[in-house]
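Handout for the seminar on molecular recognition.
Each group receives one record of this type.
Step one: identify the two inputs.
Step two: read the structure output and locate the region that could contact adenosine-5'-triphosphate.
Step three: write two sentences on what you found, then compare them with the reference statements printed after the record.
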Amino acid sequence: MSSTAVTLDKLVALCKRRGFVYQSAEIYGGLNGVYDFGPLGVLLKENIRSTWLDSVNKFGEIVLFDGAILGPEEVWQASGHISNFSDPMVDCMQCKHRYRADDIDLNKACPHCGNKQWTEVRQFNLMFKTQLGAASGASSDAYLRPETAQSIFINFKNIISTNRVKIPFGVAQIGKAFRNEITPKQFLFRVREFEQMEIEWFCKDAESLKAFEDWCTLRRSYYDTIGLSADKIRMRQHAKDELSHYSRQTTDVEYEFPFGWKELEGIAHRGNYDLTQHSKSSGKDLGVFDEETKSTYMPTVVECSVGIGRLFLALLADAYCEDVVENEPRTVLKLNPLMAPIKAAFLPLTKKQQEPMEKLYRDIKKTLGITAQFDESGSIGKRYRRQDEIGTPLCFTYDYDSENDHCVTVRNRDTTQQERINIDAVAEYIRKALRLRT
Ligand code: ATP
């Protein structure tokens, strides 16, 4: 029997219990909308990053970039973030509870206290402002970036002139972004500090609509590769009145989270808005010389942008299952092996078999370079459950017969089926089962 009774509360509890995610500064009461990632969370994030990079690299020529988090005011003036990057905010006059005005019905009473007296709706800029150095004054104002993309645009000339790249090519960046969300909510879905994976694809305008379509196809296929359920993913094209100030066309990749269909990734045709804006504002021409026409033009940009935390949450929600095995309920994360934080666990049946199993564990880690765990404490059933709950695809057990037949038992997480294999065949078995590159 199997069910997928996943709720946000269950995911939050599992993440804390097993060291995926903790509320930041928890011992001081917690910081709202900010999370820390524990050992297993870091491994899952690492798998998200590496599979994303593998996937975007398939599109064409891609170079990597890692920009600074702090940026001067001029950058955000030129990009339009200072005037446009805001959400409408409203307060309840009675209980002072604050809401995003587009999140609630202002004709109804405050969901918190039941009164119906609202302040005016005001625009609230989502950028975190800070100051560089000790001197006060406008010259030292700086902002934490609300997206990674702008650092790519302002470095476009540097990148193209110091690398052997020609249009069309892409710049990929993975890094932190910060948004002072009015109401952070739904765990990792809407937070104030997060990590984005962004690709800016620079091409000629005539080729840009095809590139946009091709990126949509590639990004859709990425989610199949990493194992998200196909029926929980959909592509939604933005209506004209929904488009951001810079966008000619946008398609969201949406995922059906436990709280409904929501944006997981945005794919935007940004035209040449950003390069044009930064050229005008900085006085440095960011155009590219075209050998064919002997003239300079501004490349067009297609952007794909996804938050690691949102994808992390989608992966956990998708993989979470509760079923009953041998009359005992278990929680299992049916993660694609590519994404599983721990690929294999090595479990001696009793303390007596510790030494040979520990040796196998070390050998496998050394040979395959995979993440693995050695666990000798508690009943074997409990140890299997512990591994199921964190999504470990394979568990190997060394038992009383192992010394004589030179075999171990391997148990499959999803089916719980067990088979006996020779110890010398374990590395090859893992390689095949996890489809590791040799
Ligand atoms: P939303 O409408 O949900 O606020 P957005 O349209 O503002 O999202 P983009 O500016 O397109 O988001 O950002 C690109 C991606 O970055 C999003 O698809 C999402 O995965 C991630 N992201 C944006 N804001 C947040 C946030 N506050 N917390 C977590 N991830 C975020």
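Reference statements: Residues 1 and 323 are 6 Å apart (CA to CA). The radius of gyration is 25 Å.
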